[in-house]
Amino acid sequence: MRHFFVPGLGLLFAFVLSARAAVDRNGNGMSDVWEMIHGASALSPGVDTDGDGYSNLA
């Protein structure tokens, strides 16, 4: 039974990493879907580009 645990854990780890990569491929903390809808793929999450007092991530 123990020899099935390690490969299964490796598959789970690979799945979690690929799922996260699909959500935020550029690693800026903003969802790729949100970026696509709002045309914000080039925005930096910690910057306030529109001057509203909130960062792009807020």
List keywords for this structure.
58 residues, mainly alpha, elongated
Tell me what the structure shows:
With 58 residues, this protein is mostly helical. It has one domain (1-58). Helices cover 50% and strands 0% of the residues. It has two helices and no strands. It has helices at residues 2-23, 32-38. The chain is elongated.
Q: Mean pLDDT, nearest integer?
A: 72
Helix content: 40-55%
Flag low-confidence runs.
none
| Overall number of domains | 1
Secondary-structure element order, N to C: HH
Structural class from helices and strands?
A: mainly alpha
Q: What radius of gyration results from the CA coordinates?
A: 17 Å
* β-strand amount: under 5%
Shape: elongated
State the distance separating the first and last CA atoms: 46 Å
The profile of the biggest β sheet is: none
Give the strand tally. Answer: 0
